[in-house]
């Protein structure tokens, strides 16, 4: 299934910058970055649960926010891209 | 229907900063900001088409990107929020 993950991390402190780097790395491990703080993860529910738990461990729940959008298996017609950097196929290799 | 809009605007120039402000204002006019560059718009297809055209007019297609995620009418179970700033009801008033 396709899950979109978006995040806001409070980077006003060094600790916040570290959390941002860790969260971005975790999302990269499981998905593709499509915008600065937006990742698309094509994975099974077990993998998504694993990723979610890892993200929750890293984030500061009082300062950062994560949103998960569950787009299901018929996700292709639900996504439209306009403009720069349309450069990857979530089912294939990175083509940027 | 619910449409999620995410954007990356290249703000390395004054013109880019202007585009960012205009794009954020347009998205605010039609939806709710849920993260820094993430808006959720609960609107009919006509309104979404209007917004899309306005955004395309403002953006620089070579430098900026917009993504639309069409979550349909049964969007509530598709969205999960974790952490800070869960503060609005897209069907109601702003509660932050």
UniProtKB/TrEMBL annotation, chains A, B:
Membrane-spanning intervals of the chain: none
CDD domains per UniProt: Cas2_I_II_III
Gene3D superfamilies, alphabetized: 3.30.70.240
Cofactor entry: Mg(2+)
Keywords attached to this entry: Antiviral defense, Endonuclease, Hydrolase, Magnesium, Metal-binding, Nuclease
Annotated residues for binding of Mg(2+): 8
EC number: 3.1.-.-
BP GO terms, sorted: defense response to virus; maintenance of CRISPR repeat elements
Molecular function via GO: hydrolase activity; metal ion binding; RNA endonuclease activity
PANTHER family referenced in this protein's UniProt entry, alphabetically: CRISPR-ASSOCIATED ENDORIBONUCLEASE CAS2, CRISPR-ASSOCIATED ENDORIBONUCLEASE CAS2 3
Subunit structure: Homodimer, forms a heterotetramer with a Cas1 homodimer.
HAMAP family recorded: Cas2 (MF_01471)
Role according to the record: CRISPR (clustered regularly interspaced short palindromic repeat), is an adaptive immune system that provides protection against mobile genetic elements (viruses, transposable elements and conjugative plasmids). CRISPR clusters contain sequences complementary to antecedent mobile elements and target invading nucleic acids. CRISPR clusters are transcribed and processed into CRISPR RNA (crRNA). Functions as a ssRNA-specific endoribonuclease. Involved in the integration of spacer DNA into the CRISPR cassette.
UniProt record similarity statement: Belongs to the CRISPR-associated endoribonuclease Cas2 protein family.
Protein's name according to its UniProt entry: CRISPR-associated endoribonuclease Cas2
Species for this entry: Pseudobacteroides cellulosolvens ATCC 35603 = DSM 2933
Gene responsible for this protein: cas2
């Amino acid at each position: 299934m396709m899950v979109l993950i978006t995040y806001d991390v409070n980077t006003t402190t060094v600790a916040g910058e570290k959390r941002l780097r860790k969260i971005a790395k975790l999302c990269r491990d499981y998905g593709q970055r499509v915008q600065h703080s937006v990742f698309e993860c094509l994975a099974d529910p077990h993998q998504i649960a694993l990723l979610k738990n890892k993200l929750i461990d890293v984030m500061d729940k009082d300062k950062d926010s994560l949103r998960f959008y569950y787009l299901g298996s018929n996700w292709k017609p639900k996504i439209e891209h306009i403009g720069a950097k349309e450069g990857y196929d979530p089912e294939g290799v990175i083509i940027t």
